[in-house]
Amino acid sequence: MSSTALVRGMGSFFKECEHPRSRWSRCSHPYKIRYRSAAGKQVKESGFSNQDKAIARLTDIYNEKKAAPRGQAKTERVAKYGAMRFGEYAGEWKAGQRDLGPASVVHLESLLNIHLLPLLGSRRMDTFDHKVVEDFIRTLERNGVGLAAQANAFDKLKAILLDANRLGLFDDNPVAGVKPPQYDPKRVVIPSPEQLRQIRTAGDDSFLLVADLMSGCGMRNGEAFAVNLNNIVADDVYRITEQVNRTTCQYERLKHRKAGEYRDVPLPARVRQTIEWHAAKHGTVDGYLLRHPGDPARTFPHYHIANQWQRIKKAGQVDIPDGMVVYGMRHFFASNCLTHGIPITDVAEWMGHKTIEITFKIYRHLMPGSISKAAKTLNTNLAA
Q1: Which phi and psi angles does 188 have, rounded to 5°?
Q2: Is the full-model pTM beyond 0.85?
Q3: DSSP state letters, 121-167
Q4: Cα(39)–Cα(110) distance, rounded to whole angstroms?
């Protein structure tokens, strides 16, 4: 059989020497073959003295796989991967995620190391079912893990288990019917205007600036850390173009946006005055107002605001509503918009939500009006 007789799925033969393919038949180095076993694992064999013997071995293996009883390949896969620990399987799955950028790789490793592997790393793959997955979510809740981190951890677990499901490891998909972690509107804690006035001045100048950007423009904290004087495109419009990524500590594209995309948001006069005041007092670096306190060549660190927030709460000198986090200042922006009748479609766009459904789920309870109020309003032009 010549090399042209090889069909798709048989594998390949080769030599690992310095000679070109045209000289393989005349050099003394042995041939090697590479193929996939019935379980899907790549296998390499060596020691074939000539091309015909290498091809004959590939042909025998191929015919054996074709003649194997139906379902044998699946049985071998289940035997191999079912006994594998989640940590090992997740490692192989991660190696196959070749389309991820550097920041996404760091984020994936963080989720695995902090949330998934400590709880599931030693579990056999064939023991997963919907109860195991639901218990994982409940454990995250009991441990006080934030909703965003819960959702991200669940998404990664779901992707890994779906990959295993495609190999036939489970009779029933272990994530089917499992309700993923979702924002609970009752957990959205928003300061009152008076509380916000106290909070914004409780830290240093950077804290004041971030508080005004989040509460006045609806920025995420990473977006506020990348505030740039050059992004004031009108007296009442700020253009958000980038954020400081928490994991890479670099300026990167906006969440849910492609590189180069931006969103324009309202710029209240007080927020513009705070930006201009901060720039005049502390200066800028290429237009950026916030840089690392110890090294202006570096981006502003996320922990600087987080540490201040913890000190402010611990001091107990400011009226902070129970359960409020720094993100509550961004929630204030949404509340301020919706309670003053600004359309939720505009709010969703300004906040950079992926879909309006996300805005609706989080802030529906803040929207003024009800069915009864709507009925009375609509009746105005219907009354005789």
Answers
A1: -75, 105
A2: no
A3: TTSBGGG--HHHHHHHHHHHHHTT--HHHHHHHHHHHHHHHHHHHHT
A4: 30
Question: From CA 374, how far away is CA 339, in angstroms rounded?
Answer: 15
Residue 352 structure tokens: 């950079």
β-pairing, 232-234 vs 243-244, is unpaired
The pLDDT profile of the chain, 384 residues, written as one tens digit per residue, is 344 467 777 889 999 888 888 888 889 899 999 988 766 677 889 888 899 998 998 988 888 877 765 555 677 888 889 999 999 999 999 998 887 777 778 889 989 999 999 999 999 999 999 999 999 998 888 777 777 788 889 999 999 999 999 888 998 899 998 988 875 656 688 999 999 999 999 999 999 999 999 999 999 999 999 999 999 999 999 999 999 988 788 999 988 788 889 999 999 999 999 999 999 999 999 999 999 999 999 999 999 999 999 999 999 999 999 989 999 999 999 999 998 889 999 999 999 998 888 888 888 777 655 556 667 767 777 855
**One-letter identity of residue 358:** I
351 within 8 A of 359, measured Cβ to Cβ: yes
Query: Whole-angstrom Cα distance, residue 261 to residue 353?
Result: 14
Contacts 24+ apart (CB under 8 A), 254-262: 254/223, 254/352, 255/220, 255/352, 256/352, 256/353, 256/354, 257/352
Q: Residue 253 gets which letter from DSSP? A: P
Angle CA 130–39–51, to nearest 5 = 160
43 touches 35 (CB < 8 A): yes
C-alpha–C-alpha distance, residues 21 and 103, integer Å: 41
C-alpha to C-alpha distance for 13 and 224, rounded to whole angstroms:
57
User: Phi/psi at 288 (nearest 5 deg)?
Assistant: -75, 130
